[in-house]
């Protein structure tokens, strides 16, 4: 959820979509993302659209946020008409969603169910910080319908957490995972970040070991990106911290892949490893495979049938528009066939299942196979799948193949 919004075309006041977006509606998987834009403090590396209490200003509050989000869910139903759209996944992210009471979060999920209907096996994910939950709140999240929790662990080393300005202690993570499993959650993810200034290979191995000792069935590991405008970027610019090194990042990725695979977690997307196919994040898989989703909340992005739009950023502006009965969308774009093909290749090549060979330039793929970047056997069966070396160079490989 980047903090800057792109330009785009105007959106009608009622949020209505072009006819091309509604063609085939209901034949593609459908999901909801709910953005909760509140944090107690802003981490130094974070560029997401989040607000502390002092940054909110008048016109927005945590207390009324669930009702405002529910108003957008109801608007989504009006815009999409009476098409049968069972919701396969819901992902509540942030920010720190668990700053809201579990009952408020449950009311938003209940509204989605009331308006659209949750699929019988719907995946409903809550993103949380380890310090923002306790045993009681986790238990209540399970009771109000959440099926999966994703914790922002980031690191198990105190000095790394300090650079990232994370406020939990390393020992907090195994405790909350234990509570989460006790509450009846089958699927638990731990998010890790590698490449933080001051982190060593041994630090990274220690974080991976700590994550694995908690026995989640899913781990995400992301390279740190120093985003312009963050406190971390300012520290790097002033020379107080050293920017992440590309070679070190590659080494950390290989360490992660080796340790996670040895523990029985296998990559299914470049930055994600799961113990079983059922443990993979179905919500993210819908993003990566071109499904439809409605993004609720300030700055949230949506996609339906090749039309993409994004909401106004500030919670007060978001609430004001919905109170007036108008769309909170800031702008939108209708993707042409070439862009949709390009985006499909960019996303599906990141997956272990790869992308169809018919979308790619055959000569370029043959060169990539020769360079050890693409697996030869799957390609002969009609799929292009990156090798481990190819994953390390994914952005460049994808550019070459398209």
UniProtKB/TrEMBL annotation:
One of its GO terms (cellular component) is cytoplasm. Residues 24-266 form the Radical SAM core domain. Gene3D superfamilies: Aldolase class I (3.20.20.70). The keyword rRNA processing does not apply. One of its GO terms (biological process) is porphyrin-containing compound biosynthetic process. It is found in: Cytoplasm. One of its GO terms (molecular function) is metal ion binding. Keywords: 4Fe-4S, Chaperone, Cytoplasm, Heme, Iron, Iron-sulfur, Metal-binding, S-adenosyl-L-methionine. InterPro entries: Aldolase_TIM (IPR013785), Coproporphyrinogen-III_oxidase (IPR034505), Elp3/MiaA/NifB-like_rSAM (IPR006638), HemW-like (IPR004559), rSAM (IPR007197), rSAM_sf (IPR058240). Probably acts as a heme chaperone, transferring heme to an unknown acceptor. Binds one molecule of heme per monomer, possibly covalently. Binds 1 [4Fe-4S] cluster. The cluster is coordinated with 3 cysteines and an exchangeable S-adenosyl-L-methionine. Belongs to the anaerobic coproporphyrinogen-III oxidase family. HemW subfamily. PANTHER family: COPROPORPHYRINIGEN III OXIDASE, RADICAL S-ADENOSYL METHIONINE DOMAIN-CONTAINING PROTEIN 1, MITOCHONDRIAL. This is Heme chaperone HemW.
């Amino acid at each position: 959820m980047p903090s800057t919004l792109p330009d785009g075309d105007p959106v009608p006041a009622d949020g209505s979509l072009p006819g091309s977006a509604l063609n085939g509606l209901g034949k593609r998987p459908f999901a909801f993302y709910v953005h909760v834009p509140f944090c107690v403090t802003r981490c130094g590396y974070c560029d997401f659209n989040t607000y502390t209490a002092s940054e909110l200003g008048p016109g927005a509050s945590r207390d009324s946020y669930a009702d405002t989000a529910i108003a957008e869910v109801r608007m989504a139903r009006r815009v999409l008409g009476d098409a049968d759209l069972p919701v396969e996944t819901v992902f509540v992210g942030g920010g720190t969603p668990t700053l809201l009471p579990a009952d408020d979060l449950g009311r938003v999920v209940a509204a989605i169910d009331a308006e659209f209907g949750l699929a019988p096996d719907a995946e409903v994910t809550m993103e949380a910080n380890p310090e923002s939950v306790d045993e009681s709140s986790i238990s209540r999240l399970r009771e109000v319908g959440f099926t999966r929790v994703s914790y922002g662990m980031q690191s198990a080393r105190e000095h790394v957490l300090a650079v990232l300005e994370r406020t939990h202690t390393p020992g907090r993570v195994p405790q909350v995972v234990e509570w989460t499993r006790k509450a009846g959650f089958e699927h638990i993810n731990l998010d890790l970040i590698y490449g933080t200034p001051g982190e060593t290979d041994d630090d990274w191995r220690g974080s991976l070991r700590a994550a694995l000792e908690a026995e989640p069935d899913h781990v995400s590991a992301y390279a740190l990106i120093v985003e312009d405008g963050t406190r971390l970027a300012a520290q790097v610019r002033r020379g107080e911290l050293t920017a992440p090194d590309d070679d070190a990042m590659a080494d950390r990725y290989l360490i992660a892949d080796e340790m996670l695979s040895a523990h029985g977690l296998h990559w299914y997307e470049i930055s994600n490893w799961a113990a079983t196919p059922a443990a993979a994040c179905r919500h993210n898989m819908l993003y990566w495979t071109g499904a439809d989703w409605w993004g609720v909340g300030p700055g949230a992005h949506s996609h339906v049938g090749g039309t993409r739009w994004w909401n106004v950023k500030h919670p007060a502006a978001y609430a004001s528009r919905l109170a007036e009965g108008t769309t909170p969308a800031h702008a939108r774009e209708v993707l042409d066939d070439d862009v949709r093909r390009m985006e499909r290749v960019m996303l599906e090549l990141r997956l272990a299942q790869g992308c169809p060979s018919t979308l790619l330039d055959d000569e370029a793929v043959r060169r990539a196979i020769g360079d050890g970047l693409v697996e030869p056997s799957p390609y002969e069966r009609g799929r292009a799948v990156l090798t481990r070396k190819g994953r390390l160079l994914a952005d460049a490989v994808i550019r070459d193949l398209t």
